[in-house]
């Protein structure tokens, strides 16, 4: 994913294409339609447009749309950071709703303590800060990932 991002992120259509590829791989994200703004190992920035498909009954960004944004940001962070020798899966999520989200949103995901990617499985926390267009933090999430070496492939019998 990181290589594709580096090749295509220089233009808006390229960023859309990479973001949409994630939507297709995990169709649950289609209604929120988050867009990757910046991606590198250890850090991801993802935006969410404030539009009617993510609204709650109050006309603000729904709490679960914010969770979707946090999970999307964590996912692209994990993909960009985890070497091909390892795999990851979310194990848990803690979310704090700090303020009403009534503008477009920006999620910044990082690993405060980068994973070691050792031969043993490990848990690592991704820290996600979601701010509104005014720069106010509206949601804070921590997602715990289980990271483990990929199992060895068995040889194909001839």
UniProtKB/TrEMBL annotation:
What Gene3D superfamilies would the database entry show? Answer: Hotdog Thioesterase (3.10.129.10)
Coiled-coil region(s) at which residues? none
Which region is the signal sequence? none
CDD domains documented for this protein = PaaI_thioesterase
SUPFAM superfamilies the UniProt entry points to: Thioesterase/thiol ester dehydrase-isomerase
Pfam families assigned to the protein according to its UniProt record, in alphabetical order: DUF4442
InterPro entries in alphabetical order: DUF4442, HotDog_dom_sf
This chain's protein is named Acyl-coenzyme A thioesterase PaaI-like protein
Organism expressing this protein natively: Actinomycetospora succinea
Instruction: Print the organism lineage.
Output: Bacteria, Bacillati, Actinomycetota, Actinomycetes, Pseudonocardiales
